[in-house]
Amino acid sequence: MTPEDDEGPPPADAYGGAAPFRSATPDPLLHRALPVAAELPTYRGSAARRDVVAGVTVAALAIPAAMAYAEVAGLDPINGLYALLLPAIAYALLGSSRQVSVGPEGSLSALVTLKATVTVTPTFTRLCSPFRARLQLIVAETGNSVGFDISSLTVTLRDLPGNIQASRTYTSADLTLAMGGSHINAGASRTLIFESAYPGNVDTMDSTATAHIILSDDAGNPQTIDLPPAFQHDGC
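Structure (tokenized):
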């Protein structure tokens, strides 16, 4: 053992009654509100060239990626630029760490804005044997992104003046019987066929069919689709 080992702890009054550790001096309010203000007085022009090169390099990679993330999410590419530039500018002024990566992230942007792409294809036909009208609706998810469930589907047939001659509202249970299910998976489709007495005369353009669909996709996004009037064609 050395003589220093036998000295033991310092006496209680070794620091004159003060704490042995110095308390940290709080940063000025300006530095706490705008951390970048603490760096500006020590910033040198020699570092500007390196920062410009680093900024151009990051921008060359980040800008195309941000625009691509927006397209994956089904948004306009300009939204990807906003998601990249605005947070980066805000963090440059308000952020306290130099090692934080700020900007859109691919998988998260795709998940947050995942939405079913629903396509409805109508075929409205005048039948002659027997003399009836047939409306066929092919409901499909064409974005291969996420499935959806139909809670209500209403079909309506009108004559030339626009008077309703036939109408029916299908619930989820009705759709299960009519087209095998109310849920349509991503990339899949189902077909609904509705028949009724012919709503018009014999002219092939004197009646129309419409559809009103209420659905919710598997990502929780509700949608309402109003199919534009479909003019019938002669199936005789």
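The helical segments are 29-33, 36-39, 45-72, 77-94, 106-112, 172-179. The first strand starts at residue 118 and ends at 128.
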